Amino acid sequence: MKAKSPNSIDVYVGNRVRVRRKTLGMTQHGLAELLGITFQQIQKYEKGTNRIGASRLQRISEILRVPVGFFFENGGSGPIEGETSELNKFLSSKEGLALNKAFIAIEDPNVRQKLVALAKTLATAGLSEVDTDLQDPVMHN
Highest taxon of the source (predicted)? Predict the structure, then answer.
């Protein structure tokens, strides 16, 4: 008998718990302790193999200092297919986590907007132009 695959929404919600927990620098053990459960249960939640009940998700949102809606996209309607895997991959990466922590630490909304604008400009400029700028000796003087 084949094991049942986790539901994609449970996997997504679990990943959002993991990303937020890591962003705060909290361990699975620390979160488990605050919830009064084992860290193995946190692992199962984060992998999506066990569903998180509504009251437990509410408590997790309080501990992680985010609204319950944080764990869902589109106002709670669930993840968008395609975008979800890319977003999860990015947020789960070392670089994505570091960028997320740094961005959250920026308190000035104007600076945040400028950073987003810079990222969009770099993305549309293309990697080859960015590489060329980095190699230009005038840029380094």
Answer: Bacteria
3 Cβ contact partners less than 8 Å away, ≥ 6 residues apart = none
Q: Confirm if 51 and 12 have CB atoms less than 8 A apart.
A: no
Nearest 5°: the CA angle 5, 76, 38 is 55
Evaluate whether 97 touches 22 at the Cβ level (below 8 Å): yes
Lookup: tokens for 81: 């297919």
DSSP, res 27 = -
The count of other CB atoms within 10 Å of the CB of residue 25 is 8
102-141 pLDDT, tens digit per residue, is 888 888 888 888 888 888 888 887 655 545 555 544 444 4
If one counts every other C-beta atom within 10 angstroms of the C-beta of residue 100, the result is: 17
- On the 0-12 / 13-18 / 19+ scale of CB atoms within 10 A, 12 is buried
* Two tokens, residue 78: 């669930």
